[in-house]
């Protein structure tokens, strides 16, 4: 029991509770965890001089979902606000920022709504879907808006500029969306169901973003006031930084080609430094109780990674033979 349920100094002891879940209701894990937390709080009130930590597989499962839902409530709004600020700087148009935000929100809600209709449950992996959809959905709207604004600066009327933007961007945006969706749908080949769910949700959200961008966005822009000042053709079609960059690349094409190739090789070589590791307890920040309990248990009792060996005796009842027991003891001493 030492170093497993009792610390070497005897100042820490563990209580191991085996829970057999019926497996009939998704609410089993939350109910067990919340009830256990209630017992812990009652014990702490009755014995304030004793520290008690709650750890285990069921607690881990609930913590993943709990933290994921917390991230959705904080990271998604924060990223949305940052994205709107960046869009405002790039587009410099309230109508463009507002319409893009509508498309992004509809795409995220559609992806999550379709997930609910097809019976996909939220897990640690799938809770990241809204952030991924938000990131991908903005590209479709940006393509259509920038082309439309450029056409209006060239002197075209708003409706004519919308039609021109759709003519130019419909096929590229469709190809981008469908290839992105196919890429995420390939996650269905994963052995982990949560990652399959993530891929399906993002794929649905990406295709929803395409439909909204080519159907709803143009209609919204057509009825919204869009103020873009027309400029002389020479000024509207000139991008001095773009011309400077293109001239630089053309003049130094060979040095840039070999230099970028070497740069990419150096970066790619970093893949050899990647280590495969999966320490579940480090998935959580130290501010969470589950991480604090896990670190305490690993420091004073035992870790959560267990190596098991199967030592065959070679015959029925052979594990009771003195020769086998002696060999087993030799293995124990060696290990």
TrEMBL record:
GO terms for cellular component: plasma membrane. PROSITE patterns: SSD (PS50156). SUPFAM superfamilies: Multidrug efflux transporter AcrB transmembrane domain. The keyword Cell membrane applies. The chain crosses the membrane at residues 72-91, 103-123, 129-149, 170-189, 201-223, 256-274. Belongs to the resistance-nodulation-cell division (RND) (TC 2.A.6) family. MmpL subfamily. This is SSD domain-containing protein.
